[in-house]
Amino acid sequence: MNSVHPKKLLLTKWTAVRPSAKEKHFLVTKVITPETPEEKIEWVDIEAAYSKVSRRIQWRELRDQSLWKQGWV
């Protein structure tokens, strides 16, 4: 399990274990903060380094080592 905290994810680099369409390396471009401070952070926007396509995922997916590796490997 990758050890990450949602508040420290901004601008971190990630490598997809199973890349598709030449999209292997990603950068967290935005941490989606909830409307109320009592709610926990659930979502982040990641951008593919190759195509610049952005998508929204649950930040907890980044903790799964079968999907993501921390850094650009």
Q: Mind sketching the topology for me?
A:
Elements: E1 13-20, E2 23-32, E3 43-48, E4 54-58, E5 68-70
Antiparallel strand pairs: 1-2, 1-5, 2-3, 3-4
Provide keyphrases for this structure:
73 residues; mainly beta; globular; 5 strands; single chain; Thrombin, subunit H
Structure description:
There is one protein chain. By secondary structure, the chain is mainly β. The protein is 0% helix and 44% strand. Strands 4-3-2-1-5 form a 5-stranded antiparallel beta sheet, with no helix packed on it. A hairpin with a 2-residue loop joins strand 1 and strand 2 (23-32). The two termini are 16 Å apart.
The quaternary structure here is single chain
N-C termini distance: 16 Å
What gyration radius follows from the Cα positions, in whole Å? 12 Å
Q: Architecture, according to CATH?
A: Beta Barrel
CATH topology category name: Thrombin, subunit H
Note the total helix count.
0
List segments where confidence is low: pLDDT < 50 over at least 5 consecutive residues: none
Helix content: under 10%
DSSP summary, beta strand count: 5
Estimate the strand proportion.
35-45%
What is the element string, with H for helices and E for strands? EEEEE
Report the structural category. Answer: mainly beta
**CA-based shape:** globular
Strand order of the largest sheet: 4-3-2-1-5
Q: Report the mean per-residue pLDDT as an integer.
A: 94
Number of domains: 1
The level 1 CATH classification is Mainly Beta
